[in-house]
Write a structure and sequence with these properties.
Blueprint: H1 2-11, H2 16-23, H3 27-35, H4 42-52, H5 56-61, H6 72-80, H7 87-105
Helix pairs in contact: 2-3
C-alpha cells in the first residue's frame, strides 16, 4: 500500500497535507501510511480510495486497474436518469464541477458562487 498511496498522491499533484485535509487526517498520518509505520482503518481506507478515485483493492494491493473516469454517458445518467439532455447542459455541469474543485483546492469555500 505504501508505494501505491505515494504514487497516486503524486500523480494527482497532491501534497501530504492536501490529501490529509481532504480525508480528515493529519499530514503526519499520511506520512506514516506512506512509510508503512501505520495502516489506515477501514473507514479511512475507503475515504482514501474514494478521494483518489481507485478501488480499495487497488489501493491495498496495487493490483488491477485504477478506476477509470466516468464517461459522459455515466455522468448524464447519474444526474438526469433516463431524461433526455443535451450536451450543452452536460458541459455546463462539468464546468461547474471544475470550478467547485478549484475553489476547494484554493481554500475558498462557502459564500455565494
Amino acid at each position: 500500500m505504501m508505494q501505491t498511496l505515494r504514487a497516486l498522491r503524486k500523480q494527482r499533484g497532491l501534497t501530504m497535507k492536501q490529501l490529509g485535509e481532504a480525508i480528515g487526517a493529519a499530514e503526519s498520518t499520511i506520512s506514516q501510511y506512506e512509510t508503512g509505520k501505520r495502516k489506515p482503518d477501514y473507514k479511512t481506507l475507503i475515504k482514501l480510495a474514494e478521494y483518489l478515485g481507485v478501488s480499495t483493492d487497488y489501493l491495498l494491493r496495487g493490483e488491477g486497474e485504477d478506476r477509470p473516469a466516468p464517461s459522459d454517458a455515466d455522468i448524464k445518467f447519474a444526474l438526469f436518469g433516463d431524461r433526455e439532455t443535451d450536451d450543452a447542459l452536460l458541459e455546463e455541469v462539468k464546468a461547474f464541477a471544475r470550478f467547485a474543485k478549484e475553489r476547494k483546492e484554493n481554500g475558498k469555500t462557502g459564500g455565494t458562487v
